[in-house]
Write a structure and sequence with these properties.
About 45% of the residues lie in helices and about 15% in strands. It is of the alpha+beta class. A hairpin with a 5-residue loop joins strand 1 and strand 2. Helix 4 packs parallel to helix 10. It is flat, with a radius of gyration of 32 Å.
Length: about 425
């Protein structure tokens, strides 16, 4: 007798995904608990997606990277051989640049896709096609609602989406994979780095307990005079905890029975704790390849170095991610044999420096013939001007044939002016 269990939300969703992974050979029963509910590390903290995002450095890194990817519009290009142009007449152009599905902006779509990609190692969007086979909608599904089934013998993969009965073939789903070890799925940063994230969670909780229970005098020890028995010492301890800790930690302390309090400066354990907090933040930023100043951590870096790191963040962090996404879009939207269309994220705005640097760059580009005036005005968000579509070329870069042609043009223009002047005199 066969039966099926349909669970679509909460814990059931994770169990359903885990059971599917076990059947496919991608997960052992021994790791089921950690896979479904979060990894437990040596610090004793359960590390899951939700708890990880409670770590300030993790949240900041995921936010700055996902917003960076979302802010770079994905464009569909047509290869004209030679030359390129925006394929604005293709239906896919609007999907990836403006709105992948009804009531969802491209910014929101790429932001949640990138967040899943960073945290879970995998992000999914179902391709819904029209009668002609063209994509008409890219429907995002959360990571927890998609189960990949891997056949390790013939290296194939299919997908199950909660609420959809039939299996989804790989050509009908966008599967954006982070770094993985089998080429078919990505690995979760949460699970790979559970120790680092767990240590940050544990340190944050320890700091919270210290603020909650600490007294106004901070670290120190109590000296009791002779004659103070255990009962009085316990009474004094309870009194201090009640009157001078938590919200009352800054009140002036009055101790009974002649007890004295001796303060102690920051000890080695506290110093190591502070260093651990700083190290964990730097380690997490390194995991996500994000400069510290991007997540608002104080640095003494010069402005010029910070601008250079902003450019490196674009080229070393955002560019590989958008290239990964573009490769998946090209394969699934246009097929493996396509040579005509390709997608590309426009990261140019994110690479801009200060105004002086931009002005120098555009000026050199205009005088060297790389940009026209209207090219520059478009990049700066300005309207085109009349006569601004011409490209300059320095005279010292002309070859002999070009010089002869230009000289002939000038002679013809000069002769035309002379003829007009002579006609006016007659």
């Amino acid at each position: 007798m066969q039966f099926s269990l349909s669970i679509n939300t909460g814990v059931g969703t994770y169990l359903k995904r885990a059971m599917g992974a076990i059947r496919s050979g991608d997960l052992s029963l021994g790791s089921l608990k950690g896979w479904a509910f979060g990894e437990v590390n040596t610090s004793g903290e359960t590390v899951s997606r939700r708890t990880s995002m409670g770590v300030g450095a993790v949240y900041a890194c995921v936010k700055v990277v996902s917003e960076g990817v979302a802010a770079a519009p994905f464009l569909l290009k047509e290869n004209l051989q030679p030359g390129l142009r925006d394929a604005i007449n293709r239906p896919e152009y609007t999907l990836i640049k403006n709105s992948p599905s009804p009531n969802v902006t491209a910014y929101t779509f790429w932001q949640v896709i990138t967040a899943d990609y960073l945290l879970e190692g995998n992000a999914y969007a179902l391709i819904i096609r029209d009668g002609n086979g063209f994509a008409k909608e890219l429907k995002y599904y959360p990571y927890s609602e998609v189960t990949p089934y891997i056949n390790h013998i013939n290296r194939t993969i299919t997908y199950h989406i909660n609420g959809i009965t039939e299996r989804i073939m790989p050509e009908d789903i966008l599967h954006f994979k982070n770094l993985g070890f089998d080429g078919l799925t990505g690995e979760s940063v949460i699970r790979l780095h559970a120790e680092t994230i767990g240590n940050s969670l544990s340190a944050s909780k320890m700091q919270g307990r210290q603020f909650k229970n600490g007294t106004s005098n901070g670290n120190g020890w109590y000296e009791t005079p002779q004659g103070v028995n255990t009962e009085k010492a316990k009474e004094t301890g309870d009194l201090i905890n009640e009157r001078y800790s938590g919200n009352n930690r800054f009140k002036s302390m009055v101790l009974p029975y002649g007890i004295k309090f001796h303060t102690v400066s920051v000890n080695q354990r506290d110093a190591q704790f502070i260093e651990t907090m700083q190290y964990n933040t730097e380690d997490i930023a390194g995991i996500f390849n994000v400069p510290l100043h991007k997540i608002k951590r104080a640095t003494s870096m010069a402005k010029a170095n910070m601008e250079q790191q902003n450019i490196e963040f674009t080229t070393d962090t955002l560019h590989p991610i958008t290239t990964n996404f573009s490769s998946e879009l090209d394969l699934k939207l246009f097929g493996p044999d396509n040579q005509r269309y390709f997608t590309q994220a426009d990261l140019s705005d994110l690479k801009k420096g200060d105004l002086q640097t931009m002005t120098d760059h555009y000026t050199k580009g205009i005088y060297s013939g790389i940009y026209s005036v209207n090219d520059v005005r478009q990049k700066m968000g300005l309207n085109p001007r009349e006569g601004g579509d011409q490209y300059l070329q320095p005279t010292n870069t002309f070859n002999l044939d070009q010089l002869i042609v230009e000289m002939d043009k000038k002679k013809a223009e000069t002769q035309k002016i002379l003829d007009q002047a002579e006609a006016l005199n007659n």
